[in-house]
Design a protein that fits this description.
Elements lengths: L1 H15 L13 H16 L2 E3 L3 E4 L2 E8 L5 H20 L4 E16 L2 E15 L1
Antiparallel strand pairs: 1-3, 2-3, 3-5, 4-5
Length: about 130
Amino acid sequence: MRMRSRRATCALVACERGKSRSAEPGATTKMTKLAIPALLLAVLAGCAMSSDVMDTGNGTYMISAVAAPLRGGAAGANSVAYADANTFCASKVAGTHAIVIGQSDRDVYQSSRGNTFAAGNAALNFRCGR
């Protein structure tokens, strides 16, 4: 039993020093335990995005967004678009926020291996005001 422990410790030390020595089957390192949740968070965080704000004339703007089912589909896309519209207005003139004058959204249903899920699209027309 003691010999097994030494090998696992040796493998960890070699890994930390940059040497390529394999650990015993079933041995997990601290880095692996941290990498899996970090990778999962990175995948889930990138599941929604918005376009650049477009000037549609007469002081009105448009922004569109998409969101994966895990980010709420159409409701998540609306949330992302509205948050980015508010950020745009606040950067343009301090103390202003987005006032929505029109919006459209829809869920896009897709199937994969027998599972159906809905990714969402949203478009907001807005102006900046107090």
